[in-house]
Specification:
202 residues, mainly alpha, 2 domains, 3-stranded antiparallel sheet, two-stranded antiparallel ribbon, elongated
């Protein structure tokens, strides 16, 4: 993990209540093939690069991975994981899940460090909340949140908190107002992020 104060096990445990880990492929609310803890799989090539296993634990072939990808991609989006699980023949072992989560966390952290070179000197709670926003939206969220970004650069954590909240339809109050439509986990995530920023500024 790029952030030396947040371990992989720590992040997995903290993130779980907001986005549970699914050991098979499914479609997210936007119809994107996804696995583990919200780790998008954008192409057959990415699918093949993942360490998928058959039911008996043996490694899946590239052809099996490609077939699974096309099968799930052709299903209805935004259903419960079990809907997809009934059609899945491949799964992720815990080690493969850990690898995907660590790669995604570090990819987000690198982008955040590019925008905020002093990121690792921020209070741990402010960093965790920022990683959480990036996990839910991708580290590219910065371009959409100028008020939050300015507050973060000024280390004004209370002002950061003021931009994070639950999403009422049509509201312009919060910048960090991820829609909970087909994604209910963002409501408690937003609340947790806001609380972390407030605690960082106290």
């Amino acid at each position: 993990m790029i952030d030396p104060t947040i371990t992989l096990d720590d992040w997995r445990a903290w993130n779980w209540p907001f986005e549970s880990e699914v050991p098979h492929l499914y479609l997210d609310c936007e119809g994107i093939p996804t696995c583990a803890a919200g780790c998008a799989v954008f192409s057959v090539g990415q699918m093949v690069a993942i360490d998928w296993a058959r039911a008996d634990g043996s490694p899946a072939t590239a052809a099996e991975k490609a077939t699974e990808y096309e099968t799930i991609r052709g299903m209805l989006p935004a259903k419960l994981p079990g809907y997809y699980g009934e059609q899945c023949t491949l799964h992720l072992a815990d080690e493969a899940t850990s690898t995907l989560i660590e790669k995604r966390f570090d990819a987000n952290a690198r982008l955040l460090l590019h925008a905020f070179p002093d990121l690792l000197s921020w209070p741990e709670k402010a960093r965790r909340a920022t990683y959480s926003i990036a996990w839910a939206e991708g580290a590219g969220f910065l371009g959409h949140y100028p008020r939050w970004s300015a507050a973060a650069r000024a280390h004004n954590w209370a002002a950061c908190a003021a931009q994070v909240g639950s999403w009422p339809a049509g509201s312009a109050k919060f910048e960090c107002d991820i829609s909970p439509v087909n994604n209910a986990g963002v409501v408690p995530r937003n609340a947790a992020n806001r609380a972390l920023f407030l605690a960082a500024g106290s």
